[in-house]
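Our consortium's second objective concerns turning raw sequence data into structural hypotheses that experimental partners can test. To show how far this objective has progressed, the report includes one record in full. It was chosen at random from the queue rather than selected for favorable results. The single chain below, 330 residues long, was entered without modification.
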Amino acid sequence: MSTPAATTHAAPPIDARPQPRWRHLLADYGIFIAFAVLCMVLGIVEESFLTWGNWVNVLRQTSINAILAIGMTCVILTRGIDLSVGSLLAFSGLVAASFASGSSANLPLALAAGLGAGLLLGMLNGALVARLSVQPFVVTLGMLSVARGLTFIYNDGMPIAGLAPSMRFIGQGMVGDLPVPVLILAVTFALFWFILKYTAFGRYIYAVGGNEKSARTSGIRTKWVIFWVYAISGLLSALAGIILAARTTSALPQAGVAYELDAIAAVVIGGTSLTGGVGTLTGTLVGALIIGVINNGLDLLGVSSYYQQVIKGVIIVAAVLLDASRKKQA
């Protein structure tokens, strides 16, 4: 008796059609295209927008948020978050100003004290998140309140004014045609761009954010990496606080309120994924510039700051939705 021939079932066809080229271009260069279009539109509707004097203001104002966002990028790449950067900025700026005002002003001591204050509080964040495995949102939300309270306690809620000329130069000085804060941003960006791209520590940051368990299995000291990204965020918050105090010629206890939102916005708009492991500092820098350009353009057009908050909120949500869409297509 003959046996029936075996029936073969073909696998369902796979849609192997290549994606349109414009989609690849949009994915790779969309943030740069958006920035260029935004500048072009604002230049058309407000002729003073494209003047060099206005761009000096844009760059000077953006430098503080961009420095915060560099530290925030390192944190978010590990699938974390730092909500305390605005409060750390205010506290560190106040500490630095206390050593840089009056007849006994000492700039090296002021810088060391301010940067040290931010670094220590950032390390405390890192220790709680890495060593005690407390959720970053909870730890940094608590630190937001603690650092803000310390800021008011430090000088009884009073601002510190009368900063020495050497301190004011950090925020107001010019080197050629470029403001000093922009040069500080350039050096900071170059340093951390190199770290993320070419060092083992940078690779570990991406590995921890991509899959912490796999990174730990491969021998990476994940808790050590997480600890130091929060320390870095605290240090850069302090640097931003010193620049802000120097630019405004006084350190205010109320400084830095909601700055964490702008920093997170710059990171997300720049393409860094909130789920970790994906993102670049170049994207973050462009994201910070987009926020700075929007703020400046709306100011030139006389739009209320209340509407600016709404617009930034919409942009953040749109960026998160775009990130989620990319993940579904991947």
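The partners drew two points from this record. The mean pLDDT is 89. The longest strand covers residues 174-175. Both points have been shared with the crystallography group to help prioritize constructs.
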